[in-house]
Design brief:
It contains eleven helices and twelve strands. With 317 residues, the protein is of the alpha/beta class. It has one domain: P-loop containing nucleotide triphosphate hydrolases (Rossmann fold), CATH 3.40.50. It has an eight-stranded mixed β-sheet with strand order 6-7-8-3-9-10-12-11, sandwiched between helices. The mean pLDDT is 93. The structure holds iron/sulfur cluster and magnesium ion (MG). The site of magnesium ion (MG) has 3 residues, from helix 1. It comes from Virgibacillus byunsanensis. InterPro entries: AAA+_ATPase, ABC_transp_ATP-bind, ABC_transporter-like_ATP-bd, ABC_transporter-like_CS, Oligopep_ABC_C, P-loop_NTPase.
Amino acid sequence: NNLKKHFPQKSGIFKKTKNYVRAVDGISFEIKEEETFSLVGESGCGKSTTGRSILRLHEPTSGEILYDGQDILEFSKGDFRKLRKDLQMIFQDPYSSLNPRMTVKKLLMEPLLTHHVCTKEEAESRILDIAQKVGLSKEQINRHPHEFSGGQRQRIGIARALILNPKVVILDEAVSALDVSIQAQILNLLIDLQKDLKLTYLFISHDLNVVRHVSDRVGVMYLGQMMEMAPTDELYSNPLHPYTESLLSAIPSSDPFKKKERIILQGDVPDPANPPSGCPFRLRCPHAHERCVVENPKYQEVKDDHWVACHLYDNNE
Ligand code: SF4
Ligand code: MG
C-alpha cells in the first residue's frame, strides 16, 4: 500500500548533493491467495525492487506491506525471520546462488536446518519428495550444480525455494535466462506446483507473452509507479493506458487478420533520480496534453478491478 523505495545517490563534484533514485514511487496492489499476480514493465521500472522490498531485502522508504492483514514492516527482526519461511524468492540465475561445492541434497538440506523445521531424518524424506515434484531423480540429487543444464538448475532453484513449504513465492525473471522450449517446461512445472501446493505467486517479468500465459492479474509499472492493473484477459484485450497499448502493440498477434499497428515510443525511460513533472509517462506519450505536464494522474478504478493512472480516463471532476 503506497510503497516507496528511494535509494540515496550522491552527486555533484564533492559528492555532497544528495539525490534520490525513486525506484519504487508509491505503488499499491493486492495479491489474492493462490493466484498469480504479475508485474511487467521495462527494466529499471521498479519491479524487482518491489519484490525485494516485500522480502525486506531492501527496507522500504515508506508504505505498508500487509500479509494476512498485518503490516510486515512493523515486525521485529525475529518475528520477520519466522515469517520468512512463508515468503520465498526464485531468481533469474539460480546458479549464482547455489554453492558449487555442495551437492543438490546438501543445498536442499541447508534451508531446513537453518530454519529448524524438522529433524535430519524428516529432512531426508522432504528432500526426496520435493526433488521428485520438480522432476529431479534420486540419483541426480547427489550431484553438484555445475553438472546440470540451465533448465535443471532452475529446477534446483525452485526446489530450494519450495522446500520450506512457503505460501507466497516471488519469481523474479525466473525463466528469462532459459531457451524458449525450456521456458515452457519450467512455466508448466510452476503452474502445476502452484495448484498442487496451493502457492501464491508474484511473477515479475518483462516478457508479455510469458506473463499472459501464467497470470490471473497483471500490473504494468513505469518509472516506479503503477500505470494500469487488470485481470489478464481484460488487460490484453482492452488496454487503457497509452503505455500498456504501446507494450502490447510490440507483441506479434496470433490472429493474422487482426494486424495491430506497432506503436513506437519516442525517447528513453527518464532517469528515476530525476523524473518529469506531472505524469511519469508524458515525455513518451502520444496523447500527452497540458494537464499531463502539471498533474500526476490519479490511479483509479475505472471498471471492475481495472485500474489506470491517466488523465484520458478522468471523470469530469
Ligand atoms: Fe499520456 Fe497524459 Fe495519460 Fe500520462 S496522463 S499517459 S501523458 S495522456
Ligand atoms: Mg529486474
